[in-house]
Design a protein that fits this description.
Number of helices: 14
Order of helices and strands: HHHHHHHHHHHHHH
Shape: globular
Structural class: mainly alpha
Helix content: over 70%
Oligomer: single chain
């Protein structure tokens, strides 16, 4: 198995984990406020990763050498992205939130083309993005998730789009500037520090009394912390690979709404397959398989492997 095959497998695994986030966040927000919940999640996530980083001296050295990158990732990926994401998800139905996040591959492709000279928009890439977004629209139409019923929900949509832009910019910066820093160190530092900041912000903005929490809340919190720790560590490692392009890696995020719909059929009472949803799944899956297979053919013709 070559490195490109390995990259695809790890990317799909990360996206499968992320596909569980939307339902988890909606469950957690039934019992907690957005910033307090997010802060706790990221503090726990940062602690989870810490044992898998490096020795203390090497840890301090990496943080010192790459302080500027860590600060940017902290600002964009953790603070801006997740504050907007949690508040946005609190304002919109879970299915609608998943659909808006589903536009992330397009936003990432545009940001990458603007910031990175070696990651330009190609015809093959744009066809895949177009088909992917078409599939997301069909999935959302089948699940009746496209309706925006109020100004509040519209504000939530704008917040989630802003979160998409922040995380796309962070992805490009990690890809371009993170050589030499262990991805676990980058992830642990940004999540723990960001979690502390978000948690402290929650005190004046959301108050301190939370009341008792059911076991469901703690299980969801632990799962979401694990997803952040594991999936982002995988993702940062993939972004560091020399021949991995940010826009192409993010195409695999189109599978997130597909898996999210399947999970809804399994877990949510009353949810059942619709023809539009199934058609959207087929389009997304076919476009990703076509993109990957065509990429392998082009690599063989040019005599290279990536």
């Amino acid at each position: 198995m070559d490195r490109k095959d390995n990259t695809v497998i790890w990317a799909i695994l990360a996206c499968l984990l992320w596909s569980t986030v939307y339902a988890g966040v909606k469950i957690g927000l039934q019992y907690d406020s957005p910033l307090h919940f997010a802060g706790l999640r990221f503090i726990i996530s940062g602690i989870m990763i810490l044992p898998f980083t490096v020795r203390p001296a090497a840890f301090v050295s990496m943080v010192s050498q790459h302080g500027k990158l860590i600060l940017w990732v902290l600002l964009l990926q953790i603070l801006t992205n997740y504050i907007l994401f949690y508040y946005g998800m609190n304002l919109v139905p879970g299915a609608l939130g998943a659909v808006i996040v589903g536009s992330q591959p397009l936003i990432t492709a545009l940001v990458a083309a603007w910031m990175h000279e070696d990651d330009k928009l190609t015809r093959r890439k744009m066809i895949t993005i177009f088909l992917g977004i078409s599939g997301v629209i069909l999935i959302s139409a089948g699940r009746q998730a496209l309706r925006i019923g109020s100004i509040t929900e519209l504000l939530g949509v704008v917040m989630i789009l802003g979160a998409n832009i922040a995380t796309a910019t962070s992805n490009v910066m990690v890809s371009v500037r993170s050589r030499g820093i262990n991805p676990f160190v980058l992830n642990s530092t940004t999540f723990f520090t960001g979690g502390i900041i978000i948690f402290l912000l929650s005190i004046p903005l959301e108050g301190t009394y939370r009341g008792p929490k059911p076991s469901e809340y703690w299980l969801v919190l632990a799962w979401l912390a694990f997803v952040s720790a594991f999936a982002f560590s995988i993702w940062y490692k993939l972004l560091q690979r020399p021949r991995v392009k940010v826009s192409e890696l993010n195409l695999w995020k189109f599978i997130i709404p597909v898996v999210g719909a399947v999970l809804s059929w399994i877990l949510v009472p009353g949810e059942k397959p619709e023809w539009l949803t199934i058609a959207g799944m087929v389009i997304i899956t076919s476009s990703l398989i076509g993109f990957y297979k065509n990429g392998k053919k082009l690599a063989v013709r040019s005599g290279t492997s990536s």
